[in-house]
């Protein structure tokens, strides 16, 4: 049971007594009775009752904004009838950081740090999506090796996002162990990110045109270690939950949604695939050479929490498959080709530091790029990638200046959280908690 | 017959004639503009037509162009035909003096919060919206922050040294 | 997997003797069957090794906190085994992540619900000073609304940094006089935040 932690908004119901002259019975017989005035006058000095609270038969429960289990800050005001939810109203914006206004003041490469903080569980996907958008605008074509390396990183971050979501669903249904087992491997993924870009969580990875440096041997060794060890752990995680009687009883039938309601609500990603629609941006509009890879798209049927759990697990297996194929393709590249880690775009990609310190041209290019003197063509572009939660879209309007004229992020969490009231109508309070965690709501992406 | 940008354009012009304008294809995405009174009719047609079938609203947002009097605020809809895999961008311009646009919530439930966000940032009044109030900013805010005339930073801070940040007058020379 | 980071692919065998530390006894007079020390020291020793933190995790720093809570960096080693989610039962409020102006009153409300003695740790650049978000909607540091004891910089801070911040809080807790919460100076501090 979630107790209200935002002291003051949690209103306790006025329990009616069995006394014949209880307020509720009087009101039912005669709404304008004199006794009401007397009651109001007598309680005036003791308790301040909110308007209409005597007549109300449902309890108002405030679920948030401070949540247990670190989901993020959003608020649900639930009207409960006993334990059934009559209605839910969501309030977001508790972490609104004005990304879109900030982006109008930052040159393109500084906006990458903003995109990290959208879906912070899988920040490399957002970074790569932004770089792909810029490359579309600027007309930069990346070589195959860069694409394959990007795919390895994006699929690793998809795995890390899904494993947090699934293990937190476990935590919310009472099982803490699964979370501890898989967080070990999230630490290994963090180490891979550290080898590539230096930072664990908010990665700011790569540049327009590729990566800042080639992947080191240590990075490849860690990727191999991950590929060797993680399938075992994932199998163990699945054994703990998938046919677990308690987990199945908690999640089957909780928060189902039909495919056409999901499409109308703008669902994308695992939530939509659990409802039965196999829309995946990687297949529909392939970017970064996804068309060279072979993978399936797991699809559910009812769209309830159990299907979402299974779809995310299935996607983790498919991501492992993609990483294996990409890794093999990268290892098969020999010679000069295996040293490429960025596109040939001197106007947008910072030159190598040793050249900057010795050659005049490289110094000038470096200065021009950092100061923002390079030519950004005016135009508007919309590009989307498959993030951990669905289609993350970047709508960029450039007027030819250093910074975008308008940048809008299409954030999947924001769009599908609207459906929460419909998903939990008539459900029990415990289902509301499980539905919220299985939708994988990330507050940073919701409010931006 | 596969649906291409050309066929979409022809079907739209066949239905609406020359009320639709500014057909362009930046980066391969068909973009066009319609007068604001027709936005629901266009969306409905794109939804119902058995060849067009644009039944997924990807994104709804707005852009502020302060130097186009009478057409300052543009509401931009991104639509997606999932069956034939084609995307579309559709713009509606309105003046900032009276920014009324019909709401798309009857057709797409996802437009509900997206329109609230657009109202919160730009002040566009969506006529017929069930619950048009601020969603991301504080409820007491009385201006629309993403319009170009408003600054990014909080103006009520007293602990920032303006001169060092390149704002305001420099301190008097010693 | 063994630590440290750079060598975990070819791990070094850990030695148990390096991994255990014992708490030191506070200074005092010892005799046959008795030990005297000041009450503050004993109470501080007890409090600091069993702090009950309340994680107020808002954004990205919250995910680093989840990593601290998990088995790799293990906050439970420091006595913070029981994470409370009700402020009425907790000693340490760890604010992790960006606090927007909409959220400011909520932080204040949670702080007011905590019972004395209470400590506040601002984890991350956003909680300390607004971070990279110098915008109209972000509170530029939670010390605008609540008094803060320890600030942990970083975006997000490494788990080791969060643990270091926790150890600084432990130092503060261990050395705090038991009269501090009733002193004029502390009351003046709370008055300056508008808290009675």
Report on the architecture of this protein.
The complex is a heterotrimer of chains A (448), B (174) and C (196). With 448 residues, chain A is mainly alpha-helical. In chain A, 48% of the residues lie in helices and 9% in strands. Chain B starts with a helix and ends in a 47-residue tail after the last strand. The model of chain B has no long low-confidence stretch (mean pLDDT 85). Chain B has a single domain, classed as Beta Polymerase, domain 2, CATH 3.30.460. In chain B, strand 1 and strand 2 form a beta hairpin. Chain C has a domain of 132 residues: Rossmann fold. Chain C is built from six helices and six strands. In chain C, strands 3-4-5-6 form a four-stranded parallel sheet. The N terminus of chain C is likely disordered. Classes of the chains: A mainly alpha (448), B alpha/beta (174), C alpha/beta (196). Chains in contact: A-B, A-C, B-C. At the A-C interface, helix 4, helix 7, helix 8 and helix 19 of A face strand 3, helix 2 and helix 3 of C.
Alpha-beta classification of chain B: alpha/beta
Spatially, the strands of the biggest sheet of chain B line up as: 1-2-5-4-3
Shape of chain B: elongated
Number of helical segments with 4 or more residues of chain C: 6
End-to-end gap of chain B? 78 Å
Number of strands of chain C: 6
**CATH architecture tag of chain B:** 2-Layer Sandwich
Instruction: Characterize the main sheet of chain C.
Output: 4 strands, parallel
Shape of chain C: flat
Order of SSEs of chain B: HEEHEEEEHE
CATH topology of chain B: Beta Polymerase, domain 2
Query: Low-confidence parts of chain B, pLDDT < 50 over ≥5 residues?
Result: none
Give the low-confidence spans of chain C. 1-7
Helix content of chain B: 10-25%
Quaternary state of this entry equals heterotrimer
Mean pLDDT of chain C: 85
Written as H for each helix and E for each strand, in order along the chain, the element string of chain C is EEHEHEHEHEHH
State the domain count of chain B.
1
